[in-house]
Amino acid sequence: MPVIKKTLIIVGIAVLIFEFAEHVLLPLFWYITHRKSKPRAGVESMIGGEVEVRTWGDLEGQVIFRGVLWRAASDQSLTPGEKAVIEEANGLTLRVKRRSPKGATRPEQKEG
Predict the structure, then answer these.
(1) Residue 3 in 3-state DSSP?
(2) pLDDT: which is higher, 22 or 105
(3) pTM above 0.85, yes or no
(4) For domain 43-98, which CATH number applies: 2.40.50.140, 3.40.50.360, 3.10.450.30, 3.20.20.70?
């Protein structure tokens, strides 16, 4: 077999191996390592974020999130200056709930 033919076969096999690794193995590795990571952009990244209540009526008001004033709604009555957590975002309105104080026990952890 001539040297050129052997070289072309080796180069062809190397290209196939490289393409398989690039289009199958690397994306699979990326998916496995990043599947549980929190979104970094968009509305999904806001969920769980902490806001500060600026003004509040009965069940609606305004909150500050990352320096931006947002309209907010909650099932709880909140007070200005209080911290809350974003549960979801509906359009330009955030649904928030009161932040549980640090060190508070969960109901299943109470003694008695």
Answers:
(1) helix
(2) 22
(3) no
(4) 2.40.50.140
